[in-house]
UniProtKB/TrEMBL annotation:
Protein name: Low molecular weight phosphatase family protein
One Pfam family named in its UniProt record: LMWPc
Claim: Transcription is one of the keywords in the record: no
Cited InterPro entries: Ptyr_pPase, Ptyr_pPase_sf
Bilayer-spanning residue ranges: none
Domain Phosphotyrosine protein phosphatase I: 8-149
Superkingdom per UniProt: Bacteria
Ranges in a coiled coil: none
Record bears the keyword Acetylation: no
Length: 155
């Protein structure tokens, strides 16, 4: 798939679907509107969306506080067939392995974006926020590099 081409459907995935993939899902929806069907999932869904992730997304006008974490397994239980996605973007090594394993029978692209997991990296609110901003900004720059500049203008 060519750079700057927005696929019809994108799945972002990471380990718990609580920080990196919800940030990516929220950004993709905010930046590219309805150009693509966007979802996210985790290898596990043992955590709720992270409060620091919500805070750093709010700073750039991306709303993720209503995100409900889900796993690949739950997605498939709910009828979201991974083969129906044009692109899967894995944001962690574990999610890349799982995406490749689950999609080996499909002809679809799995891309790996090595995005830092900010959980547990810093002590204190300001240091934690700085780590989460770094993760958010890594996702944003990879997204713009991959899909082009945001097309949705702020209301």
């Amino acid at each position: 798939m060519a750079q700057n081409t927005i696929p019809a459907s994108v799945l972002f995935c990471c380990d718990h679907n609580s920080i990196r993939s919800p940030i990516a899902e929220g950004m993709m929806k905010k930046f590219y509107g309805r150009a693509a069907y966007v979802q996210s999932a985790g290898v596990k869904n043992d955590m709720e969306v992270d409060g620091f992730a919500i805070a750093v997304c709010d700073e750039i006008g991306v709303r993720i506080e209503n995100h409900r974490s889900r796993s690949f397994e739950e997605m498939m239980d709910w009828g979201d067939d991974l083969g129906g996605f044009d692109l899967i973007v894995a944001l962690s090594p574990a999610s890349q392995r799982q995406a490749l394993e689950l999609t080996r029978v499909y002809h679809l692209d799995v891309e790996y974006w090595p995005i830092m997991d900010p959980a547990g990296l810093a002590e204190g609110r300001e240091a934690k926020l700085a780590a989460y901003r770094q993760t958010r900004d890594q996702i944003q720059s990879r997204m713009i590099e991959r899909f082009g500049p945001p097309v949705v203008k702020d209301d």
